[in-house]
Amino acid sequence: MAAEIQKKLQKELEVFNSLQKEYQKAVSQKQQLDGQLNENKAVKEELALLKKDSEVYKLIGPVLVKQELEDARQNVAKRMEYISKEIKRTDVHISALENKQEAIQENVNKLRNNLGNLKISA
Questions:
Q1: How far apart are CA 109 and CA 67, in angstroms?
Q2: Is the pLDDT of residue 122 over 70?
Q3: Per-residue pLDDT tens for 16-28?
Q4: Rounded to 10 degrees, what is the CA torsion of 64, 67, 42, 46?
């Protein structure tokens, strides 16, 4: 009986560790997305300061390519919208991982209690 509980406990801990790695990866991804969103906000603010006849260039690889101001503004707005959606999707994923971790932590605690009770009664 104790060996069976020990085996279940080990399996739950492996799943928990796997979830923790996935959680850290998701949090890192969210931080990266937040950084990208902030960069794009700054670009949007800079573009808002420009006059209609200002020249705007976009870096494509090693080359600067002239771009219409309105096109640049639209591209930044679309990019910000996409990044915001990705942040929301990542937040949902992080929340789901937190819930899974809590459930597994409860199972681990129950298994440890069961194992402890078996050792005490033995």
A1: 60
A2: no
A3: 999 999 999 999 9
A4: 110
Average pLDDT of the chain is 93
Ramachandran class of 86: left when φ > 0, alpha when ψ lies in -120 to 50, beta otherwise: alpha
pLDDT at res. 121? 64
pLDDT digit string, tens, across residues 97-120: 999 999 999 998 888 888 777 767
Place of tokens 């101001």: 69
Distance from C-alpha of 72 to C-alpha of 58, rounded to nearest angstrom? 8
Let me know: does 67 contact 79? Beta carbons within 8 Å.
no
* Token pair listed for 16: 């928990």
Centroid of chain to Cα 107: 25
Could you give the CA distance from residue 66 to residue 50 in angstroms, rounded to a whole number?
Answer: 15
Cα distances from 55 to residues 60, 72, 81, 115, in angstroms, run 16, 10, 24, 72
* Nearest to 47, CA basis, from 77, 19, 26: 77
